[in-house]
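explain this:

___
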Amino acid sequence: MKHIILGLLFLIFTFVRGQNNYNCFTVLAGKNATEDGSVLLAHNEDDGGEHLVNFFKTKHIESNTPEEVQLRRGATMKLPAELYSLLWLEMPGMEFSDSYQNEYGITIVSDGCPSREDRKDFTGGGIGYWLRRAMALQAKTAREAIQIAGRLIEKYGYASSGRTYCIAGPSEAWMLSVVQGRHWVAQRIPDDEVAIIPNYYTIGKINLHDSLNFLASPDIIEYARQRRWFSGSDEDFNFREAYGQAGNLKDSINIVRHWGALHLLAKKDYRIDEPFPFSCKPKHLLRPEDLFAVLRSHYEDTPFDKSEHYRLGSPHIVQRAICARSTQYGLVAQLRAKLPPAVGNVLWISFYHPCTHPFVPVYSGVLHIPASFDNGLTPGEALMRHFEAQEESAPSHSFLHFVRDGKQVDKNYEKQISTRKNSLQNKERSFIRQQKETEKNVLRYYRKDKAKALTIITEATDGFWKVIWD
């Protein structure tokens, strides 16, 4: 406790005031760090203001000719003739807020990470929104997604200050950190460790001779030397320190969020004022429920809980925590290589504030998503209209049901949250039991009657949503 209090004073007197740009939070766990051998990815999508979240299942596409798409700022890009199906969480109007899981389980989310790059090096305006979608449509593995992204960044240039894409599949997980222009670096999460990222770069020292665990643009070190951001030997190069925006790396809100997840997950007890590792050993083998708890955290039972365990009001209003006022949805991808992809890859989703709504499992192989999540649009129409203004007040949209309910809880959070926690945890336990029963039933049919197996998956997923709405 003493080192936590000292660390708190350290933050108050040393670090700059926390940023207010409402970005995201992600945790990645390797397959040997989890109880069931799955790769896990947990993410809170944070965006300030009032938003809509649409949810779609797109179809696998095979055509005779490659598709050509126009990027937002003018360039054109060719996609291959075969495109994989997607679970797609769409936020209309937002360039960097959509999340994907494709039919092979490749799951992609992102966290804004401002860089120090002040030179714009683009072709046709660069690439932004389409980068993660292009990865999701084409990649069968997380590594392949990195390679696709690297080629696109080097061809078009990245049209934003900086960002880290978190990419996971059933075999491994990676972080891909990109910088405005044509520079990028990626690091693999060790299979027996867990990695945490708020909204600053966490990739530090890199070894470009180790292509199993690191990939990067060819001149990532030399360019930093040219800009006088780094002057040492290759062995001493630290991507985070060379390319990160200095004030962002010292941001107190980022640091506390990072520490908050380490406090819940890490085997070692890290001090708030010491450097955090890129990844670390977990205190025990992780389950999806452990990551649900992280995404719900307001630093309860630590000195960083400014709501004083809700006595001073809703933690969403009192402070900026992992589960925040700006959180639009939380998700946990459970990616299991030992099962067929349609069954083994599951996206657990909690809309709006994860602390007030259960995580609902959605199988990658579902045939459809409930229509009340689509805002009356087909996936193709939603893509065409993504940057257009969309009606956000339709009372029948399911996402807005969660928003209204979450805001109601915030009005008297201390009184309501205890009952709410018990309710959502009971529902999640029920979903986990049903998940095991459903999968046992599905696997009886999968090889001899795949259509029937996918119907069972879809009906089970529809049933999970009915439990929430009833």
